Amino acid sequence: MKLADCHNIDDFRALARARLPWPVFDYIDGAADDELTKARNTAAFAEADLVPDVLAGVAEIDPSVTILGRKSALPLILSPTALQRVFHWQGERAVARAAEKFGLWCGISSLATVSIEEVGALIATPKMFQLYVHKDRGLNASMIERCKAAKFDAIALTVDTIVGGKRERCLRSGFSSPPRFTPANLLGYALKPRWGLDYLLREKFSLPNLDTHVSQGTREAVSVQRYFTEMLDQNLDWTMAAKIREEWGGTFVLKGVMSAADARRAVEIGADAIMVSNHGGRQLDGSRAPFDALPEIVDAVGGRIEVICDGGVRRGTHVLKALAAGADCASGGRLYLYALAAAGQAGVEAALTIMREEIVRAMKLMGVTRLDQLNRDRLRYR
Q1: Model's pTM, two decimal places?
Q2: From its phi and psi, is residue 311 left (phi > 0), alpha (psi between -120 and 50) or beta?
Q3: Fewer CB atoms inside 10 Å of the end CB: C or N, the chain?
């Protein structure tokens, strides 16, 4: 299978699986416990049918939208994800450059493998930083100040990762950050020599947003589950979130809101947006899908803040369904991580080309020329 054979996100997943050592692929692909929530995140979109209009004159359409005050060519954000240079040596640089080329928001994680400063200087398009609140208050303050200096456009405070989810595929493979080779997984790495040569001979693995304060994950190999459980501040609450918003002073997003009550609290503390997200099913297995939760959360905030549907997006029609349900835009991680792992920047660009074509085609088939024409009258739930 080659990049040219990829015609949808599932094809990129298959190519990534063929090119990555199985512990690395399972880290991207896996989720918590029985992985029920991960599966539901995408399956939920199949429970709603689109209602098209015809004879609508769709020769000229506009798929752009304003997200958090910045123009985006598509109603899609490339969600922040960790450890990208483990999946492909180009890592966050490839994703950021592809996002800029397509005129999209992209995000980087506290656990990014490229620094805040480098990404800030690399692209001019909107950038979001995903903040994990660590027990080390100095580290938290450092990351916020570095985002200010690098002129990041928004901070997304992750609120669903008080402890690490039980990611059983990673427990079986022994996947850690940085990757640790063990008798149980050595063959899996050895069977993918191209990946191994890139990992061993190219730029040394690091977590440059953390390594001034902590060694875990950069010099000391730890599982992601253990890192989250031991390093993140389990005292994080609404008061702390409001204080972080004040310290940052810029556009502020809460990532991981899944209830109407929490959405209303987000409005109260002055958040600019919420990402309706269950962390790709990687935290609380058995929680609802973001698309399922959208209508009541949209109604709860009543247009006072922006609502982003994060997770499970694999098709352009998924994006349109999210907007019809009331979201301001959609976002996703695996949809570009599979492509990054498959072919670096070229893979991400190919995936975004497909998503753009699917969004444009679906808009025309829906009989809409602007995204604000999508509403709940365009959906029927089964």
Answers
A1: 0.96
A2: left
A3: C
